[in-house]
Amino acid sequence: MMRSSTNLSHRRSSTPIMNIPAHPAEVQISPEQRQTTIENIKQLLQDQNATLVAHYYTDPEIQALAEATGGCVADSLEMARFGANADAEMVVVAGVRFMGETAKILSPEKKVLMPTLEATCSLDLGCPIDAFSAFCDDHPDRTVVVYANTSAAVKARADWVVTSSIALDVVEHLSDQDQKILWAPDRYLGAYVAEQTGADVLLWDGACVVHEEFKAQGIRDLKQVYPEAKVLVHPESPSAVVALADVVGSTSQLINAVELLDAETFIVATDRGIFYKMAQRAPGKRLLEAPTAGSGATCKSCAHCPWMAMNNLPLLEKGLITQDQEILVPKDLAERALKPLQRMLNFNR
Ligand code: SF4
User: What confidence tier does 298 reach under pLDDT thresholds 50, 70, 90?
Assistant: First the structure.
């Protein structure tokens, strides 16, 4: 892998002012009601020949329900793959909107529902298609590589879609062919990819509201208390945080690291929803949330995505009954977005 200095450009986008929702209040239902809701959801899934796919960042009870009903808990790419391969007429996506869209693009014949269509992502919101398309038009000499956390329209404008698990390999492959890259939307992940591959990368200026909040000094302080801890960092985090990592990787790669590394304590810089799967795969290991803005932290500065937190049991049950939270992607758009997605799925290195 090339690790030469990068030819990194940076562009301030016309990112819209974003309304970040407050975390939804915890659902107040009795244990009996909760159990009844879970049983109802199981029955509704079965009656409607539906499969539930959940992201690692959703709440533990949603992930547990996906597992208990034969669905899957995974990263966005595996969620879409699972939905496409499932012998089901309906895919219920517990995650955020771009994940529902990706599932629909890969499974156009299936009905795709979400607990709420309001669950979105700051990276998706921060990369509106008109401004992004103009940015691409301004740089026709560059290969357009977009992260999975984008709308179907942005994917349709791209040459490649990548997830964090294969971003390095794809960009290195393109750079080896002397291609210059236009990267969107996450500037931290883009800068990390550029630095690791030595590729010539022009960045869109987006960020994840969760990962951007991790603080290097907080991690250093925590290491004073737990000097033996390994630091695991998702590359959507700022470079000062990435620099402290023992392992930098995608959600799946970080889960594997907890299981495989010979360590008992981990400081984890990604959404705390991932602790469910980490604890399941490596029981007994100590998992510590990497510090964000510290005391007084708001929704903008904690280790849990406010949009992922919208996925809860009552909305899931309601969505299965009303079926009014359906993901629809126009056919021509889906066909164009499928091409760069398919390129990623076919990519082998
Ligand atoms: S954690 Fe960040 S990247 Fe993931 S859905 Fe939430 S805002 Fe988007």
Answer: low
Cα 149 to Cα 173: distance, rounded to the nearest angstrom: 21
Q: Tell me the backbone φ, ψ of residue 334, rounded to 5 degrees.
A: -60, -40
Residues 6+ apart with CB under 8 A from 31: none
Q: What are the pLDDT digits (tens) for 51-74? A: 999 999 999 999 999 999 999 999
Chain-centroid distance, C-alpha 67:
19
How far apart CA 328 and CA 112 sit, in angstroms, is: 8
The pair of three-digit structure tokens given for residue 20, joined into one six-digit string: 């970040």
**Three-state secondary-structure class, residue 249:** coil
Which pLDDT score is estimated for 77?
82
Give residue 344 CA to ligand 1 midpoint distance, Å: 21
Is residue 210 within 6 Å of ligand 1 at its C-beta?
Answer: yes
Q: Whose CA is nearest to atom 5 of ligand 1?
A: 121
User: Distance between the two ends of the chain, CA-based, in angstroms?
Assistant: 12
Question: Residue 163 to residues 97, 169, 177, 211, 279: CA-CA distances in angstroms?
Answer: 16, 10, 20, 16, 24
Dist CA 119 CA 115 (whole Å):
9
Q: How far is CA 30 from CA 27, 37, 211, in A?
A: 9, 10, 33
pLDDT at 8 over 70: no
Q: Say what the pTM is.
A: 0.92
pLDDT at residue 299, rounded to an integer: 60
Across the chain, mean pLDDT equals 92
- Which two three-digit tokens encode residue 151? 């709308």
